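Q: Is it fine to ask for two folds in a single conversation?
A: Yes, each is treated on its own. Send the first.
Q: Here.
A: Result:
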Amino acid sequence: MLSRFLLPVGVALLGANLAVADQESCDLDNKCPEDTPCCSQYGQCGVGAYCLGGCDPRMSFSIESCAPIPVCESRTFSMDSLDGIVDVSEYLGDASKADFVSQGEPIAYNDNVLLTMPPRSVGTVLATTVNIWYGTIKAKLKTSRGAGVVTAFILLSDVKDEIDYEFVGTELETAQTNYYFQGVTDYGNSQNISLSDTFSNWHEYEIRWTPDKITWLVDGQEGRTKKRSETWDDENQRWNYPQTPSRLQISIWPGGADTNKEGTIEWAGGPIDWENHPDMENPGYYYATFGEISIECYDADSAPGTNKGVSYWFDDIAATNDTVVDGDKDTILGSFLATGLDMDKGKSDDDSSDDDDVATIPGGSSSGTGSTSGATSDEDSNSSDSSSSDDSSGGGGGDSSNSGSSGSSDSSSDSSCDTGSFSQDCNGGADSGAAPERVMGASALAGIVALGALLIL
């Protein structure tokens, strides 16, 4: 929902803790320069992490600037632990070594995964490493609750095609559905589905997406169908229908944060209560609970909707389904200096990034180290409320890119959070619910900066 309003806040939060290099903005009329050729999902030019998931080839230096993205694979995720979930600072594009990339504080509890939002934080998001070019996607979940608190289960492509379920914490008997073509806002695309309490009850939410129609189902019952034939745009002579490879993204985010615009806060049910809401008292943070998630690829014999190769990429900036190539280009960057134009740039003999070169990475620090407070915001930072350069609706936001080396990660083990007691006291009791401070190499920080929009969802 209108994540373009939220990007400047994410950048401000990053700037409060990191040495962030000046970045050029990008949009359809202002493409990135050759030295920082990749346009992230939220309109910032860069290299490395900017060139992975969320990189928009229409706004980049050239259509080849973005790295190819991993093709669809049918997968089932039990979501009973953090296995297969890696931090965005540990991912360079190898989908065989991770199921999801994460930002924020996911924790494992009672054989489920919780997406948490500690006090005055920006929430948590997980995004699949594979991309879905039509198929059936299911998720069992319990939403968050409370004014201003939003849970999202969406599909989002690099060119901002989008299919949504969103849940506002004051409307616990409503699932909002929506869709967008290339980020073009159309408020007539939204439709609600009624159901029982989404916080207290498990429901299975399903998206069946084919080249001809989208069906939203709850607990196996059809709630809404939208046919492609109903989306013809006579003025622009095109189908305004989601049609390009997309990642599944699940998130909890602060629609009611006081840094958002009035319209966003109103849509989200009002300002967030960071102090007196029952969830702030126990367990000390807002949360959404996720059970099993599954992806069943469309597996067409011929395009659109195939997954025969290793990767997808576009061969024309029109970025419609007839311009998607299903082929065998590599998806893995050699370092945070690499781009789709030079996938191996900066690659060292041991496949690790070279910290001596981090100053050339947007957001890098010449000191070689830096710190970020994870999902916790800095109230002393000067947050802007202006919108970003693109017209994407965002649908609860999504990460603009991924970063780091692949591998499994249990993020709760990196902090002093006591996840076994369903509490997230990560600061030694100083501020219950605050996310732990993390210190990482500047090359990893470059990836985090590339995900400024992801941080704020």
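Q: Second one now.
A: Result:
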Amino acid sequence: IGVEDLPQHIVASRGNGSKQHQVSAVEPTEDIPAHVPWTEAGVDLNGILEDMEKKLIIQALKTSGGVKNKAAVLLGLNRTTFLEKVKKMGGTLTSH
């Protein structure tokens, strides 16, 4: 794909447009951790993030001895944000 394939308003915003620029496809990253279940169909990002958030909250509660204010500080969260996240997780959250 060359500059000539781009919409005119984009070409005009880049200057005179006389140079040919090639747009290459984005190559897949090799930085995806092995434990992330990446497949040809992709991943369930929301599920992965929810699982990680739950694990981090549980670890923070263990580390803080169950003191929610300290757990929030460990995670860099405001206490109210932390409590909202814990409440959202409902009965699925245990620190044992």
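Q: Anything structural to flag on that second result?
A: Two points. The two ends are 55 Å apart (CA to CA). The mean pLDDT is 78.
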